[in-house]
Amino acid sequence: MRRNDRPQTRSHNLTEPILTPSARLSAAIEILDDIGARRRPAADALKDWGLAHRFAGSGDRAAIASLVYDGLRRRASAAFVMGAETGRAVTIGMLRLQRGLAEPTISGLFDGGRFAPEPLTEDERTRLKEGSLADAPPEVAGDAPAFVLPSLEAAFGDDLMEELRALGRRAPLDIRVNALKQTREQAAEALADLGASPTPLSPLGLRVPTGEDGRGPALHVDPLFLEGGFEIQDEGSQLASLLAGVKPGETVVDLCAGGGGKALALASLTGNGARLIATDADPRRLAPIHERLRRSGAEVEVRTPRTGKARADVLADLDGTVDRVLVDAPCTGTGTWRRNPDAKWRLRPGSLANRIAEQAEVLDRAAKLVRPGGKIVYVTCSVLPEENDAAVDGLLTRSGGTIVAVATDLSAVPGLSEKVRRTARGVQMSAGLTGTDGFYVATMTRES
Ligand SMILES: C[S@@+](CC[C@H](N)C(=O)[O-])C[C@H]1O[C@@H](n2cnc3c(N)ncnc32)[C@H](O)[C@@H]1O
């Protein structure tokens, strides 16, 4: 159905703004202070602010969220330039570093009027004019937690600063066209009024332009989305699905299926030609998959564990028989900092250690499922070698030689081979090199 033949329920359908740009800045400052003082997730702080300010329109809320997330993207560097870690300092520094506003424009917004932030002080003006990151340490200039810097250096080498800067930018808004419903060209035509254009690497992807403040159209209420014509999925996640190399006729287990992003992609890629079985340790994470399957026409057998510990039972009949096991592992998500900047400041050494233990657990489970000659495809959205090559090495060692690493076939994605970073065991996508989230993919096979 062509777009203009049917009711239009989408586009930038946010309510008229009620707050002035200055009042939105005051709100963002308040929320950033709340996040800092109570160490709470940004989403919770934004929700609470919205509940306490019900008069604000959805357009206001979206703009304030965009300011808060931009502030989090540049939290360390903005604080360095402004010489303070308050919500106000981070917001002012962010307006210059992230949004490229000059001091007079920022001064104009901080006019001290009703609901506006207090006027800039002399010190703030000077810092805005003269402040620089030239003397900032890499973790500050690159806005990353200091404790993961050695891992990031190991991952990126000489490209460290370029990659950190790329991770500090906003992510593009990408969708994966559902090939079970239409071609990419047909979807692009249907979404032409949004300006959707092909993604650089994924043959299934379309990129939807966003506004100056990073806000995009409300795709989740788009008629084509509601008909199952596309899913919102970063290009890197689409590429990881393609690199899984699933072929029609195979029996495939998606061991960490979560809400089903990759399971849906695999069904679409194979034209429902593979036997796909999806499960997850957490039934709540799996729950959205049912509605997504209905919408998309994807055929996936979902096996829901009664509790986390019961998941082994739901797959017990498949041990030693599976052609391909996709392990889209729980990870720190360091490769997704562009879209989830809150996560980098919430990351702790303990949470990294927990994810590494979970990765070993799921890989061991995958090793039991795969048949001799079958493949395990290990995927993370992390750029930390501890969660990537080291996790693969761990399984190879524990398997006593029965599981071996093989090259990941990149031929499904023209142009990727020249762009992607090769590691000892797999391939690493990154914001700097492939322009995607930082997905890692490694392939292993069972020899006997
Ligand atoms: C990266 S997310 C999966 C995302 C999903 N594949 C997608 O594309 O939308 C990782 C998932 O692993 C699950 N998980 C964690 N430990 C697990 C385990 N031991 N066995 C199976 N799943 C596990 C988590 O509940 C989480 O949903």
Briefly, what is this?
The chain has 448 residues and is of the alpha/beta class.
Description:
This protein is α/β, with parallel strands linked by helices. It folds into 3 domains: 3-12 and 170-232, Alpha-Beta Plaits (2-Layer Sandwich), CATH 3.30.70.1170; 21-136, no CATH class; 235-446, Vaccinia Virus protein VP39 (Rossmann fold, 3-Layer(aba) Sandwich). Helices cover 42% and strands 13% of the residues. The chain is built from 21 helices and 13 strands. The strands form 2 sheets. Strands 5, 6, 7, 8, 9, 10, 11, 12 and 13 form a 9-stranded mixed sheet that branches. The chain has a 4-stranded antiparallel sheet with strand order 2-3-1-4. It binds S-adenosylmethionine. Residues 255-262, 280-282, 285, 311, 328, 330, 358, 361-362 line the site of S-adenosylmethionine.
Characterize the largest beta sheet: strand count, sense, and whether it forms a barrel: 9 strands, mixed
User: What characteristic shape results from the CA principal axes?
Assistant: globular
- Given as residue ranges, the uncertain stretches (5+ residues, pLDDT < 50) are 1-12
Instruction: Specify the structural class.
Output: alpha/beta
Please tell me the overall pLDDT. 94
Bound chemical compounds:
S-adenosylmethionine
Distance N terminus to C terminus?
51 Å
CATH H-level superfamily title of the largest domain: Vaccinia Virus protein VP39
- Rg value: 23 Å
Number of strands: 13
CATH architecture heading of the largest domain: 3-Layer(aba) Sandwich
Strand-residue proportion: 5-15%
